[in-house]
Amino acid sequence: MRHGVKKIKFSKGQDAHQALMRKLVLNFIKHGRTEVTLTKAKALKSVVDRLTAKAIRGEPSDKQVLMRYLSHKHAIRAMTDEVVPVMKGRTGGYVSLVKLGPRQGDFAEMVRVEWIEKLQKVQQAEPVKDTQKSTPPAKSVKRVKTL
Question: Annotated region Disordered: where (predicted)?
């Protein structure tokens, strides 16, 4: 029995909990912000802070943890290319929670989870298309009058 360990648990079971957290993390990394209930936001913040710290440290074992948890190339690339350069100087607290008030349907406390510093999207270089296509010169056609 683990005494004194406080972990936010959802009443769906371990597999559903892992799937929910993975989905929340992937959506947060993709969009840069997300709006969820207060309990989910607290759980999301702890996971994102740990993953961000591992991405900043950048050791091979940390990259394996990122690949195992995120399992999407675009999310791993976003963490390493967009998040790490901005958060490099920070030692923790990469995510902030902004209270939005109660949800209208069931009065649940809603929170916006966002990065503490503004991220800049890295634009991928698009291949340059040639505007002038080299076409072979048109052949001159002689018209012959028929009788």
Answer: 125-147
pTM: 0.75
Q: Tokens in use for 10?
A: 């959802």
DSSP-assigned letters across all residues of 64-119: HHHHHHH--HHHHHHIIIIIHHHHTT--S--EEEEEEEE-TTT-PEEEEEEESS--
Which residue type does 78 have? A
Phi, psi of 17 (to 5 degrees): -65, -45
Task: Give CA angle at 38 (33, 42), nearest 5°.
Answer: 75
Side-chain half-sphere exposure of 12, counting CA atoms within 13 A? 9
Model confidence over 81-133: pLDDT tens digits?
999 999 998 888 999 999 999 999 999 999 999 999 887 765 555 566 666 66
Task: Determine the Cα–Cα distance for residues 139 and 57; give it in Å rounded to an integer.
Answer: 64
CA 56-58-63 angle, to 5 degrees, is 115
- Topology, domain 14-115: 50s Ribosomal Protein L17; Chain: A, (3.90.1030)
Domain boundaries, the chain: 14-115
